[in-house]
Design brief:
The complex is a heterodimer of chains A (227) and B (253). With 227 residues, chain A is mainly α. Chain A is built from 9 helices and no strands. Chain A has helices at residues 5-24, 33-44, 47-60, 75-84, 104-132, 135-140, 144-182, 189-204, 210-226. The N and C termini of chain A lie far apart (43 Å). Chain B has 253 residues and is mainly α. Chain B is built from 10 helices and no strands. Chain B has helices at residues 16-22, 36-47, 53-59, 71-83, 87-126, 130-157, 163-168, 174-200, 204-222, 227-244. In chain B, α4 packs antiparallel against α5, α4 (71-83) runs parallel beside α6 (130-157) and α9 runs antiparallel to α10 (227-244). Chain B is elongated. Mean pLDDT of chain B is 87; it is low at 1-8. The chains are: A mainly alpha (227), B mainly alpha (253). At the A-B interface, α2, α3, α5, α6 and α7 of A face α2, α3, α5, α6 and α8 of B.
Chain lengths: 227, 253
């Protein structure tokens, strides 16, 4: 995929900002794939396709718990990758897009990108752990400027990782998706991903007390589909 | 909670820089100290003015882990105590309160509010209102949490002489968390019902695909297998079936 340098620069800025939101701050939700995919799709000129691709990646990781030391798949990067190679003529009117088998290659690429993004974040954190070995010595000598520098370096690494990974997947995702489509990868992934999201939400709802809410929701869902 | 020698005015409040720095608490996360570097960095505007900078920094140079949305509450209390020259009290507060506040924050934010807001966004998108869905998800998630972030800092800074007692009262209300988890259950159930009904209305293959996704997804989730892996398996099986099946076969999704 060839993109003008200005577009790549804007995508790099977007990726840097989203990486900061995802890994360095409490997160305002904008780095979730639903939003990341939409923003990437809008920048590439296919808003609705980006939105659809981001929503499907979101459906897969809707119940992910980023607690403690868990390093989860980089769903933001997955959303960006899926949006970059989503079919540009896809529209969200009605529910026909959920049956569109052309969304399968972008979603597979998005899942792969999310796992690669996880590796990149783990590598960055290993580097941060190495740099943080200097903390006891800095504290013992009262060298607070060193701690400031350490924090600044970490922020710059997040920005650089986000920019590089975003530009990388936007350039690489379309040919990979094309190759997958050529190899016959096709499935109505919209409905499959929503079914998986339903399972994740059902589990996130908690213990035995969730069953009445799940049953009421299922009845409402049946009613909406029937109407 | 005991007192040490005070080196600041009793009514002094921690600087706003602590709050701003708390926003970047996770930036320098590492497996050994977790948010230790971020917490030390957030407290520096106070610590570097301490009579013994090195001792003050050593007190906060270790392991620290908390839900990032709850961090300003405890960081403000620590900054206030350090500002008062009560370093030992600060260490006690840090050791006793970080874990319970973090647990309450995780339950509220990650297990309840975030899936509820994302589920709402997704449901509205499927229902045909994608932009409204995204706006609703952002507003419902960001407004309460930004309020909690700022309010937690103010309450932590005003915790006074008994911060452990004051901060324990700042946990998110259990009833609110239960309500949000019920909402998550409703959304999950709604998606199951809608998926099942719309799949039943399509081809037998469509119904088979959704049924397989629900069953495999359920068992995979029980075994902590990523939904991404389940989807890859389903895509591979369906793509293969489409390849070998005769044209127009109704059992292929």
């Amino acid at each position: 995929m060839s993109l003008p340098a200005a577009d790549l620069a804007v995508l790099a800025l977007l990726g840097a900002a989203l990486a900061l939101d995802e890994s360095a701050t409490p997160s305002l939700l904008v780095s979730q794939p639903l939003f990341a995919g939409t923003l990437c799709g809008a920048l590439l000129g296919h808003l609705e396709a980006g939105m659809a691709a981001g929503a499907l990646v979101q459906a897969l990781w809707i119940g992910a718990l980023p607690v403690g030391g868990a390093v989860l798949p980089d769903a933001m990067l997955g959303g960006v990758a899926a949006a970059a190679c989503a079919p540009s003529d896809l529209h969200l009117a009605g529910t026909a897009w959920l049956e569109d088998a052309r969304l399968a290659p972008p979603l597979v690429v998005g899942i792969g990108a999310a796992w690669l993004g996880r590796l990149a974040l783990r590598a960055q954190r290993r580097l941060q752990a190495r740099l943080a070995r200097a903390v006891p010595a800095a504290a013992a000598s009262g060298d607070w400027r060193r701690i400031e520098r350490l924090q600044r370096i970490a922020v710059v690494m997040h920005l650089g990782r986000g920019a590089a990974c975003t530009v990388g997947v936007v350039l690489v995702a379309p040919p990979v998706a094309q190759a997958l489509a050529g190899a016959g990868v096709a499935a109505p992934v919209g409905r499959l991903a929503l079914a998986l999201a339903a399972v994740s939400l059902g589990r996130a709802a908690g213990g035995r007390r969730r069953w009445p809410a799940l049953a009421a929701g299922a009845l409402a869902g049946l009613g909406v589909a029937w109407l | 909670v005991s007192s040490e020698t005070a080196n600041a005015a009793p009514d002094a409040r921690p600087p706003r820089a602590v709050l701003l720095r708390a926003w970047m608490l996770d930036a320098a996360w590492d497996a050994e100290r977790m948010q230790g570097v971020g917490a030390l960095h957030a407290l520096l505007p106070v610590l570097r003015r301490a009579p013994d900078v090195s001792a003050a920094m050593r007190r906060h140079a270790g392991y620290f882990n908390i839900n990032a949305w709850m961090a300003p509450t405890i960081l403000a209390a620590l900054a206030w105590l350090e500002h008062q020259g009560r370093g030992a009290d600060a260490v006690r507060v840090r050791e006793r309160l970080a874990a319970p506040l973090s647990g309450a924050g995780d339950l509220f934010v990650w297990s309840a509010l975030r899936p509820a807001c994302l589920g709402l966004g997704l449901a509205l998108l499927v229902a045909g209102w994608p932009l409204w869905g995204m706006v609703a998800a952002l507003v419902a998630y960001d407004l309460p949490l930004l309020w909690l972030f700022g309010r937690g800092f103010a309450r932590g800074a005003a915790a006074g002489d008994d911060p452990i007692r004051a901060l324990r009262a700042l946990q998110p209300p259990a009833a609110g968390v239960r309500l949000l988890r019920q909402a998550v259950g409703l959304l999950g159930g709604g998606l199951v019902g809608w998926s099942a009904a719309s799949a039943a209305g399509s081809t037998p293959g469509g119904a088979l695909g959704v049924g397989l996704a629900l069953v495999l997804g359920y068992y995979a989730a029980r075994r902590q297998v990523s939904p991404g892996i389940v989807l890859l398996i389903l895509v591979a099986v369906i793509s293969f079936a489409r390849r070998i099946a005769p044209t127009g076969a109704v059992w292929v999704p």
